[in-house]
Amino acid sequence: MDIIEKITESQMKKDLPEFRVGDSVVVGTIITESRGGKLKERIQDFKGEVIARKGKGVSETFTVRGVYSGVGVEKTFHVHSNKVAYIKILKPGKVRRAKLYFLRDRQSQYKIKERR
After folding, report:
1. Over the stretch 22-53, which tens digit does the pLDDT of each residue have?
2. Fold (CATH) for 3-94
3. Long-range CB contact pairs, 7-14, < 8 A, 24+
């Protein structure tokens, strides 16, 4: 085994759920705040649908799109990042596309079917 493969394999998370594009997920991210010179960490949830996955190995990323106060918000997360505390699947989705970028133009006109 190559030395680079050993290093990247040690940095990958093993306890991740199997999620795909179209799934509704909650991503818990670790936020570090500075209050009065003290560093505090908390977990903030981001809820939405997975609209894209890119890459492989340690550099794999996924994009989640959620609607907050009527405004569409997209965040891109690294799958194996230390800042991602957990990924919970709320509802598995059934889609025919690898990237769901067309959801940016449609507010509530498109409903993702549930995978069984």
Report:
1. 999 999 999 999 988 899 999 999 999 999 99
2. SH3 type barrels. (2.30.30)
3. 8/57, 8/58, 11/58, 11/80, 12/57, 12/58, 12/80, 13/79, 13/80
